[in-house]
Design brief:
Rossmann fold, four-stranded mixed sheet, globular, binds S-adenosylmethionine
């Protein structure tokens, strides 16, 4: 997003950001959107630009390549947004498999429940309204205190796509600990980040890529007025956090957000895949 448009967008109160997006795309949505389609109207897609179906399908291939699960597996999608990842699983999971998603934004959960769960009853989406200065301002519930509403050792696969990039350290650490609790032993979590190390810092200094000018120690912000809009983490801090919570990193795939083009997958965000020991 152009910096000026982004600045203007961040000046708006959170609920108005959703309304503005809906209005901008309304003419196109009225003309093109089909009520029965498994793609939400563009004005409801608050979870990022890019092709909705293709993004989900690409990530599905990566989950398959780097994690271990099958059609009968139990899957947890943390920060499931408006179902971008869930759609690819609708053609994959058997009725024995289970898909659970939760998010803090009601319009996403409502859309997923109405359009996905109604056709695929083994897909469940929960609203957990937690405060976040990009997505939900009128809540005083903290992600740092959330106990995920699932039993210990319930999932074969957990993933977070572009979610830790919107969470501050105390919240993130609680989620790492909860992921450790709900994952089955030897099963994996796939999570995306913006990670800062010497290489990514050097490259971002010298080019026009994403920048995180506000150094907060273990993390850095793109914009101080809306902290949770984009957060980058010190790579060492994240790696140590995984270790502290008895999680083993099985793969690290560097994304191209910083301008570095050296991962075979060439995804935008960095990816860490970790396993419960
Ligand atoms: C960029 S969107 C990505 C959505 C989805 N993972 C995808 O890839 O389509 C970030 C999502 O994280 C959600 N989110 C932010 N903080 C959260 C939290 N503490 N717990 C769960 N979801 C959160 C937002 O509501 C939003 O849906």
């Amino acid at each position: 997003m152009n910096i000026l448009i982004r600045k203007f967008f961040y000046l708006l109160p959170v609920p108005l950001r959703f309304v503005v997006r809906r209005i901008i795309y309304l003419p196109k949505d009225l003309l093109l959107s089909k009520k029965t389609s498994l793609i939400p109207p563009k004005g409801l897609i608050f979870t990022g630009r890019g092709d909705y179906l293709k993004t989900g399908a690409n990530y599905f291939l990566l989950f398959k390549k780097y994690c271990d699960f099958n059609p009968d597996s139990d899957v947890l999608d943390i920060g499931c947004g408006i179902g971008r990842m869930a759609i690819s699983f609708t053609n994959y999971l058997s009725p024995k498999g289970k898909y659970e998603g939760f998010d803090i934004v009601k319009i996403g959960i409502d859309w997923c429940t109405k359009n996905i769960s109604s056709r695929f009853p083994n897909f469940t989406f929960k609203l957990i309204p937690l405060k976040n200065d990009l997505y939900l301002s009128n809540s005083d519930k903290k992600a740092s205190e959330l106990v995920f509403p699932y039993k210990n050792e319930s999932f074969d696969l957990v993933f977070l796509t572009s979610v830790f990039t919107h969470m501050l350290p105390n919240d993130l650490e609680n989620y790492i600990s909860e992921i450790q609790r709900v994952l089955k032993t030897n099963q994996k979590c796939f999570a995306t980040f913006f990670l800062l190390d010497e290489e990514s810092k050097t490259v971002t200094k010298s080019n026009q890529s994403k920048k995180f000018p506000h150094d907060m120690g273990t993390y850095a912000l793109m914009d101080k007025s809306v902290k949770e809009a984009n957060i980058a983490y010190d790579k060492k801090f994240i790696f140590e956090l995984m270790q502290k919570h008895n999680l083993e990193i099985t793969d690290f795939l560097r994304g191209n957000w910083s301008g570095i083009q050296n991962s075979e997958e060439n995804e935008h965000q960095d990816i860490i895949i970790f396993k419960k020991k």
